C-alpha cells in the first residue's frame, strides 16, 4: 500500500508540471518563476510598434542582464528597469482585443503592482488639449459598445442613460428627415473582477485610473516638453504640456470625423480618443491593479489643426514619450513601495 501511494505521488510530481501549464512550456514557466522571484514590477504597456521602438531605442529601459525577455502567446515581455523601478515592458498592438489580451497575459503571469500605459491619441477638445500635449485622463470609457435600435424606434431593454447618437441629426440640409440608421445607444461594459464571485459581472461605463498614480501624474505636469525639433525652426505653435484631463475614450475605430468627435465631447465630456486605453483600464480593474494612461496628442480626430502642428508632432512625440515616462518613473521610484498595498486592496 505504501509503495502504491508513493508511486502515485511520484507520478503526480512528474505529471503536474506538465499538466499545470497548458500551452506554456515548462521552460517558459520556469522563466516566469525566476522573473517573479525578483519581486514586483511595474507594467509599461505601449500601444504599438512605433512606441515600442521609442522605448527600446533611447536606452532608458535597461534590459535585465539575466533574463531579458520571455515570449507567451506571440507576445514578448521584456524585463528590465526604468529609473530604478523593476519594469516589464509589453506592446499591445492596436484595438481593444489586442490591448486586453496583452494586458491580461501580463497580469496573469507576472507580479505586477501597477500598469502604466503610453500611446498616441486624438484630442476632442482642441481648445484645451492641443497637438503635442500629453493627456492623462482620470476616467476612461469604452465608447464602442452600442445598442443599435431599429428604424422607427425600439422597445428593447438596453441602457438609454449614457448617450445616444441619432443619425438624422447629422443630415446635411433638411434636419427633420428621418434616417434608417436611426440611433445607437452607448452601453456599459460588463466587468468581471477578482473581487467578486466568478461569473458575476458588474455593468460599468467609466473606469477610473488609480487615484495615487493620478496624483503622482500631477507632479510631472511641469515636465518640459520640446516645442521645436532640435535647434530647428520646425516648432509646434504652442508650448506642449503634460495635462491631466477628466475623461478619455477608446473604441475599435479611428475617428476622423469632426461631428462625431464633437458628439463625444458634448455628450460625454471626452478629451482624448484612442483605440486601447479603456480596454487596458478594464483588464486592470478586473484584476484590481493600479492603472494610469498617458497619450500624446497627434491629431484632432477630423477637426482641422491650425498650422502644421500635425506634421511637427510626428518628429517630436518620441522625445515627449521619453520625457513623460522617465519623469513618471522617477516619481514612482521615489515612492517605490507605495503601490504594493494596491494588490487586493480597496483602491477603486
Ligand atoms: C438621446 O439623447 C438626447 C441628448 O442628446 C436626450 O435629450 C434624449 O432624451 C435621448 N433619448 C433617449 C431616448 O434617451
Report a brief summary of the structure.
This protein has helices at 2-19, 26-37, 49-57, 96-109, 211-218, 258-268, 277-287, 309-312, 317-334, and strands at 41-46, 62-63, 69-72, 75-82, 85-91, 112-123, 134-142, 146-148, 164-166, 183-186, 189-192, 201-204, 206-208, 242-250, 272-274, 290-299. It is of the alpha/beta class and 348 residues long. The strands form 3 sheets. The chain has a 5-stranded mixed beta barrel, surrounded by 4 helices.
Arithmetic mean pLDDT? 91
CATH architecture tag of the largest domain: 3-Layer(aba) Sandwich
CATH fold-type name of the largest domain: Rossmann fold
Low-confidence stretches: 340-348
What is the string of helix and strand elements? HHEHEEEEHEEEEEEEEHEHEHEHH
Strand proportion, as a percent range, falls in: 25-35%
Spatial order of the strands forming the largest sheet: 6-15-14-7-16
Structural class: alpha/beta
Could you describe the largest sheet, including whether it forms a barrel? 5 strands, mixed, barrel
What's the count of strands?
A: 16
Name the shape in a single word. globular
Please compute the radius of gyration using only Cα atoms. 23 Å
CATH superfamily of the largest domain: Nucleoside phosphorylase domain
The count of helical stretches stands at: 9
Helix content: 25-40%
Distance between the termini: 53 Å
Ligand inventory reads: 2-acetamido-2-deoxy-beta-D-glucopyranose
CATH class of the largest domain: Alpha Beta
Amino acid at each position: 500500500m505504501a509503495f502504491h501511494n508513493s508511486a502515485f505521488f511520484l507520478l503526480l510530481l512528474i505529471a503536474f508540471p506538465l499538466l499545470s501549464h497548458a500551452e506554456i512550456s515548462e521552460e517558459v514557466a520556469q522563466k516566469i518563476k525566476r522573473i517573479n522571484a525578483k519581486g514586483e514590477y511595474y507594467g509599461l504597456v505601449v500601444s504599438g510598434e512605433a512606441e515600442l521602438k521609442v522605448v527600446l531605442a533611447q536606452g532608458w529601459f535597461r534590459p535585465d542582464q539575466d533574463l531579458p525577455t520571455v515570449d507567451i502567446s506571440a507576445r514578448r515581455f521584456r524585463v528590465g528597469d526604468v529609473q530604478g523601478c523593476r519594469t516589464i515592458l509589453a506592446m499591445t498592438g492596436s484595438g481593444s482585443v489586442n490591448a486586453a489580451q496583452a494586458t491580461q497575459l501580463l497580469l496573469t503571469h507576472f507580479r505586477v503592482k501597477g500598469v502604466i500605459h503610453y500611446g498616441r491619441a486624438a484630442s476632442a477638445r482642441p481648445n484645451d488639449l492641443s497637438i503635442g500635449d500629453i493627456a492623462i485622463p482620470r476616467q476612461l470609457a469604452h465608447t464602442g459598445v452600442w445598442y443599435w435600435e431599429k428604424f422607427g424606434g425600439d422597445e428593447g431593454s438596453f441602457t438609454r442613460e449614457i448617450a445616444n447618437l441619432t443619425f438624422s441629426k447629422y443630415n446635411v440640409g433638411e434636419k427633420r428627415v428621418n434616417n434608417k440608421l436611426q440611433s445607437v445607444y452607448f452601453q456599459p461594459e460588463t466587468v468581471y473582477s477578482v473581487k467578486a464571485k466568478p461569473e458575476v459581472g458588474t455593468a460599468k461605463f467609466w473606469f477610473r485610473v488609480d487615484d495615487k498614480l493620478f496624483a503622482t501624474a500631477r507632479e510631472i505636469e511641469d515636465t518640459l516638453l520640446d516645442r521645436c525639433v532640435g535647434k530647428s525652426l520646425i516648432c509646434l505653435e504652442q508650448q506642449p504640456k503634460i495635462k491631466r484631463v477628466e475623461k478619455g475614450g477608446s473604441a475599435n475605430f479611428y475617428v476622423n470625423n469632426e461631428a462625431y468627435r464633437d458628439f463625444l465631447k458634448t455628450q460625454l465630456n471626452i478629451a482624448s480618443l484612442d483605440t486601447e486605453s479603456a480596454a487596458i483600464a478594464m483588464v486592470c480593474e478586473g484584476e484590481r491593479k493600479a492603472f494610469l494612461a498617458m497619450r500624446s496628442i497627434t491629431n484632432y480626430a477630423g477637426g482641422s489643426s491650425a498650422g502644421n502642428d500635425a506634421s511637427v508632432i510626428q518628429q517630436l512625440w518620441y522625445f515627449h514619450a521619453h520625457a513623460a515616462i522617465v519623469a513618471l518613473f522617477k516619481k514612482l521610484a521615489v515612492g517605490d513601495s507605495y503601490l504594493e498595498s494596491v494588490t487586493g486592496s480597496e483602491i477603486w
